[in-house]
Design goal:
132 residues
């Protein structure tokens, strides 16, 4: 089943990256606009995550507390990521993806697997679902 799931996932990504069937599925370059949007999206997510970490610091076990404090330091490994995204040209291509892919989106159909529910994560905007 795991091998079949891997095969179906690969087939899904190949179909989503195809340019023959429909222009909406044509792979796209990472433009400067997209890099800015990606940086903003990640920045918002990182800000929310750091806020949540700060909010729960007092209830964390000591091992988790050490790692959480490392993430919250300005010189942490996350500090230079935004500059890297904005300044470095990305040479790979963008393709469409399943907006909320997890095992709950896989149905067993006889002896096969079917991937369903392509509308994306319900709590995220359509634009954000396209970024991920």
């Amino acid at each position: 089943m795991a091998e079949m799931l891997g095969n179906r996932r690969a087939q899904m990504h190949l179909a989503l990256a195809s340019e023959e069937e429909s222009p909406e599925f044509r792979p796209e370059p990472f433009t400067p606009f997209y890099r800015r949007a990606l940086a903003q999206s990640i920045s918002k997510l990182l800000t929310k995550s750091c806020h949540l970490i700060r909010k729960t610091l007092k209830n964390m076990p000591s091992a988790a507390l050490e790692e959480a404090n490392l993430l919250l330091k300005p010189e942490s490994a996350t500090a230079g990521w935004k500059r890297d995204i904005l300044e470095q040209k990305l040479t790979s291509i963008r393709i469409r993806v399943h907006g909320d892919f997890h095992l709950g989106q896989v149905m067993l159909a006889g002896r096969d697997l079917i991937i369903v529910d392509f509308e994306g994560e319900p709590s995220r905007s359509i634009f954000c679902n396209r970024l991920v």
